[in-house]
Known about the structure:
The protein is of the alpha/beta class. It contains nine helices and eleven strands. Strand 7 (172-176), helix 6 and strand 8 (203-207) form a beta-alpha-beta unit.
Amino acid sequence: GKQALTMDESVRVVFKxxxxxxxxxxxxxxxxxxxxEKTVGKAVYNGRIIExxxxxxxxxxxxxxxxxxxxxxxxxxxxxxxxxxxIESIKSNLEYLKSRSDAEKSPSVRDTIKTxxxxxxxxxxxxxxxxxxxxxxxxxxLEEVTEPLVAKPHHPDNVASLSExxxxxxxxxxxxxxxxxxxxxVRAAARIVEGHHIPHNINFVVSPASLDxxxxxxxDGSLARLTSAGATVIMPGCGLCMGNKxxxxxxSTALTTTTRNYQSRIGPADSRTYLGSAHVAACAAVLxxxxxxx
Length: 294
């Protein structure tokens, strides 16, 4: 039989140049909102695919952060062009799968290994057609992004510069989730807090995104640096993100690296949640408040 499928329209987002020092992939997520609002309106993403270009400088984990966050833009999908970094990431994934204890026992793992090997034998790098049609094209000049961006309560699209929130006192700082618990984000946080002591009134919690990441962070000393500074490292996974593994208290103000900060999602209705990068979160944990740009 046949099934008619209607493809979603695409919005083309072109990042121009390279990010300034201190600007992370998490900040690039917020620029999707800022520059859409400046041009065609952020509703342009609704139900459409966001096709992002000009992100060759991002590694595989950072590209994941960027494409993962399109869900909060109400987009149906997010893509970046594949390149040699993509191939290297796939090869790394293949090595991981082959090292698993169930590599020979699990039918799904065996099939995945075979499929990846078949692809790598004759890889095809996917990119947009030269004459592709787009619902809109948005350009983001990265030289204009001079400071980290955060999302204020109670929506991921409520974007503000770090200067706008500097000095706001916090009760809880959480680093984790699918877009904040990756290995490099947690490593960066460990480097920032090393040698410092988290104030007693700050509940600083870290949850690596997966057991593999947790294990590697334990082996390289990152978790020890975090706990020495006063962090609580919890079991890997989503952690605070959905509010089911952990919640914040009444009237609390939290800064998290999670994807969403809707009212009552991770705490009572009178709590407030800000979103930001692991770098900003680690600095905030040390200070007990949002840092300044300096």
